[in-house]
């Protein structure tokens, strides 16, 4: 018996562990099979290979009429989209389960806290004390206290203001947001980078066929020639920044635009920002203009 076999002998043959799955949500707004298949073909043709081989959850809560689930699943599979679950009600829920789909609960995306500049009074002091500044006095050693007196009889030198360390211990520090993911290299065709729960910063070119995805904002300091998707978990406030715009596809919170024709000269290969307006329409604007 090998050493590795002996180490595994005490382990169970299988185990259950939690996992987070990223899936594309396919929202149905019609019950007509031909209409759905035509819309699916058009979307996949526009998106190229962006959604290929992605797991999908079918959301039919807006459809009351009964759907042809077998035809719908076949259409998804023809585009290499793999249905892993369904959100449905009424007859469609029962029919979807009979077609082999698992009911899932889609949690609403947790909005990321808005960032605001801290007031001057909260800016930490990082400069060393000046030469003339007095050093803090050291408190005299305390005698150990035992019994009930330890909780009811504070020492005299514990008065407020005498111990900076004591005041710092009672100050609640704010939760630190995750640091942005920084990619300090070019991304070649076929490479995909996903920044979960944070922003993504790429210093270099994002080549055609490469994909950059982030739950927050995306910053590309270099040519953006591939696909960029910000707000991947539904943050409509997310934005895409680049110093040289020439993408294949742009997406924010599921709203995407495939760049099929040449961009306007005021935008192509120019610094730009991409964002959604109040009506979730995508806008591309040249920076500094």
Give the CATH level 1 class of the domain at 181-286: Mainly Beta
Amount of beta strand = 15-25%
What's the rounded overall pLDDT mean?
Answer: 79
In terms of structural class, how would the helical and strand content be classed? alpha/beta
What is the count of β-strands?
Answer: 14
Strand-and-helix sequence, N→C?
HEHEHEHHHEEEEEEEEEEE
Q: Which fold does the CATH topology of the domain at 181-286 refer to?
A: Pectate Lyase C-like
CATH architecture of the domain at 181-286: 3 Solenoid
- Spans of at least 5 consecutive residues whose pLDDT stays below 50 are 123-127, 133-171
In DSSP terms (H or I, runs of 4 or more residues), the helix count works out at: 6
- The radius of gyration computed from the alpha-carbon positions, rounded to a whole number of angstroms, is 28 Å
Biggest pleated sheet? 6 strands, mixed
Helical amount among residues, as a percent range? Answer: 10-25%
Strand order in the largest sheet: 4-6-8-10-13-14
Span between N and C termini? 72 Å
> Which overall shape is indicated by the principal axes computed on the Cα atoms?
globular
Features:
Pectate Lyase C-like, 17% helix, five-stranded mixed sheet, 289 residues, six-stranded mixed sheet, alpha/beta, globular, Alpha-Beta Plaits
């Amino acid at each position: 018996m090998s050493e590795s076999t002996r180490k595994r002998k005490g382990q169970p043959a299988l185990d259950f562990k939690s996992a987070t799955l990223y899936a594309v949500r396919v929202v149905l707004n019609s019950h007509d099979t031909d209409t759905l298949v035509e819309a699916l073909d058009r979307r996949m043709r526009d998106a190229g290979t962006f959604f290929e081989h992605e797991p999908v959850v079918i959301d039919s809560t807006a459809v009351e009429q009964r759907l042809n689930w077998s035809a719908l699943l076949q259409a998804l599979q023809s585009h290499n989209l793999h249905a892993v679950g369904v959100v449905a009600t009424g007859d469609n829920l029962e029919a979807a389960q009979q077609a082999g789909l698992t009911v899932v609960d889609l949690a609403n995306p947790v909005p990321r806290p808005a960032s605001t500049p801290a007031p001057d009074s909260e800016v930490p002091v990082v400069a060393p004390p000046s030469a003339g500044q007095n050093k803090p006095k050291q408190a005299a050693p305390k005698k150990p206290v035992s019994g009930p007196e330890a909780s009811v009889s504070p020492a005299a030198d514990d008065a407020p203001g005498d111990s900076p360390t004591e005041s710092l211990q009672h100050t609640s520090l704010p939760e630190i947001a995750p640091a942005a993911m920084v990619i300090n290299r070019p991304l070649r065709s076929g490479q995909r980078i996903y920044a979960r729960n944070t922003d993504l910063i790429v210093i270099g070119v994002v080549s055609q066929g490469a994909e950059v995805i982030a739950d927050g904002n995306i910053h590309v300091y270099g040519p953006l020639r591939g696909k960029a998707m910000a707000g991947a978990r539904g943050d409509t406030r997310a934005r895409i920044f680049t110093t040289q715009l020439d993408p294949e596809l742009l997406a924010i919170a599921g709203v995407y635009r495939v760049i099929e024709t040449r961009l306007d000269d005021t935008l192509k290969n120019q610094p730009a920002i991409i964002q959604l307006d109040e009506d979730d329409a995508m806008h591309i604007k040249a920076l500094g203009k």
